Amino acid sequence: MTAPEWVFGYGSLMWNPGFPYVERHPATLEGYHRAFCIYSRHHRGTPEQPGLVLGLDRGGQCRGVAFRVAASAWQGVVDYLDERELIGYAYTPVQLPVSLDDSSRVIAHSYVADTDHPQFAGPLSGADSAHLINRAVGKAGSNRDYAVKLIEEMESHGFPDEHLHELLERVVQKQPATASGN
Fold this sequence. Notes:
Elements: E1 6-9, E2 23-40, E3 51-68, H1 74-86, E4 91-100, E5 105-113, H2 126-135, E6 137-138, E7 141-142, H3 143-156, H4 162-173
Parallel strand pairs: 1-5
Antiparallel strand pairs: 1-3, 2-3, 2-4, 4-5, 6-7
Helix pairs in contact: 2-4, 3-4
């Protein structure tokens, strides 16, 4: 089996891929949806107060971006993505069929939530997700700032997600517990 030439991005990869590509197309992945379903105990939280980061969970569909990568760059792109996505998080690399907006279908490399991993949060209520996001701060900063920026960026790039927009409203309604006057 030959390696796929495509990468499917569903979060910050959509506007900040960090790797060279030769084509970029809006695309749809069936059978998965994006959700804040992965606990972050390092970058966006701590072991005592974990945050949540985005993952692809089973069910539904997800609008994102498919990037075609030159064959000569493929292994370097996968190595980069593995380092970016697999270190410390509950993701599994997979190859999945995605539909480009021109109706063609391609096989794309992506990362889905590993539902057996201890950092998989599973389906949480909007209130529980907002509570975790608002209070967590990790090595990379505030989980609240990450979530707000991520959702606003997705919407500004033409990828609105009703469930994540509802979560955004819950998050911004509450003042983060970590805020201080300093």
